[in-house]
Design a protein that fits this description.
CATH topology: Four Helix Bundle (Hemerythrin (Met), subunit A)
Distance between the termini: 63 Å
CATH architecture: Up-down Bundle
CATH class: Mainly Alpha
Shape: globular
Number of helices: 5
Strand content: under 5%
Radius of gyration: 19 Å
Length: 131
């Protein structure tokens, strides 16, 4: 009996701590990614390596936790696509950080542009942007 009570208590505690990544959190994370991108750009334009590197670090941290909920459709590609884009963004963030540390700001802007392209591609597919 004691084991059952402890088991139910543990299950209840785990249920309270686990929550789904919802629309509000996703919107907040997207805003944080936008702010990190602005920080990288401002750091590059003002020749402030510390600011650019902090923005890159922030962007990588946020991109790592992006999730898109699976819809009821079995063939929904959006979650896999979003994860792939987030992974690509983290790769380019590392590239930007390396270039900023090496003092190659022009090369860092090329990586920044690639990140921006990944963002736009993801938004176009996930949000179904039309041109």
């Amino acid at each position: 009996m004691k084991k059952v009570i402890v088991g139910l208590f543990t299950l209840g505690a785990l249920t309270l701590t686990v929550h789904a990544y919802d629309k509000v959190e996703r919107k907040h994370d997207m805003q944080m990614m936008e702010a990190a991108m602005a920080q990288i750009q401002k750091g590059i334009l003002s020749n402030n390596d510390k600011m650019a590197l902090q923005g890159a670090s922030n962007l990588k941290e946020i991109a790592n936790k992006i999730e898109i909920p699976q819809s009821k459709a079995e063939l929904d590609y959006k979650p896999r696509y979003a994860k792939k884009m987030a992974k690509d963004i983290m790769k380019y963030v590392d590239q930007v950080s390396d270039k900023v540390e090496d003092g190659k700001l022009h090369s860092a802007t090329a990586g920044y542009a690639e990140i921006l392209n990944k963002c736009i591609s993801c938004h176009k597919k996930i949000r179904a942007w039309n041109y």
